[in-house]
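It is worth pausing here to work through a concrete case rather than discussing structure prediction in the abstract. The textbook approach is simple: state the sequence, then state the predicted structure, then interpret. We follow exactly that order.
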Amino acid sequence: MSEISPPNLPALLAGRRRILVTGGAGFIGGAVVRRLLAESEALVFNLDKIGYASDLTSIEALPQAEARHQLLKVDLTDAAATAEAVRQADPDLVMHLAAESHVDRSIEGPAAFIDSNVTGTFHLLQAVRAHWEQLPAERQVGFRLHHISTDEVFGSLGETGRFSETTPYDPRSPYSASKAASDHLVSAWHHTYGLPVVLTNCSNNYGPWQFPEKLIPVVILKAAAGEPIPLYGDGANVRDWLYVDDHVDALLLAATQGQLGRSYCVGGHGERTNKQVVEVICDLLDDLLPAGAPHSRLITPVTDRPGHDRRYAIDPTRISSELDWQPRHSFEEGLAATVRWYLGQQEWCRRVREQGGYSGGRLGVLAAAGAN
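Step two, the predicted structure:
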């Protein structure tokens, strides 16, 4: 592991005592909430609709949660409830992570992504703007809204080049189009109304506590169970993988130190093809579960995802140079820790899949069938 230290959270918050995190019962939002509870004295208000991928297990296990964590069970598509939640939280900082985020689900049911990611962000912006405008001057000075987005808004790269903050938007899926729209709304509220905002666009996150419908946890759990491992198309699609704790470092730096109105791209220097990721997981499992070796025999090509972006890669120069951010985990270190975590948490995976109504099967197949 790198010798780089995580950010000094109390120093970064600089007196911001009330933090509103939207989507704080999700994978990345939960990691942010846990860090805030563990390393600061802030009161954390967790606005989450408690959807299929939401889970509070990791937060409620912290001793600080009882006194300093408050769940606000609110769907951002409800404007009145959103406004009331912001009023109740009375925040000094808002970190907006709530979003529908699974591309395959957006292919099957795009309406939920427009409702949540576009309309929901609009309602939050209106509520936060009203809150900010009535704050006393001493609190207005430090107030910020940090909008967390994805590199998928930039579309697909060829074999060379990397996304940066100046890359034109070119979303290709209902999910990425909805996130692109939300990015533009946040930027517009800054330029039109003066709302103090910062934006970040990150590469693919992985790590503990991720709902097991995404590539890495799906592969780990299927391989451990001796089931076929689905690999889209030729497996040559490239993603830039970012360990979730390193992303949290970047988010806290951007939220508190980023230049207002500015966006920051966050990538983990972890470019791998999907096939390479699957093969590394199989190699790790061969060591950890030798009875099932070789796990690579389970890799099974399946029909590619409609509109599947070929390659993502992030140039994180801006956040590295301006905010002194660097990932603390190599891809190999982070993936090994993630594999071990999922092997030890299979009961949690079973429970959240059951309560989320997800059987572990492939999503997006209806659109795939219709596209053929």
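Step three, interpretation. Residues 110-133 form the longest helix (24 residues). Residues 366-372 have pLDDT under 50 and may be disordered.
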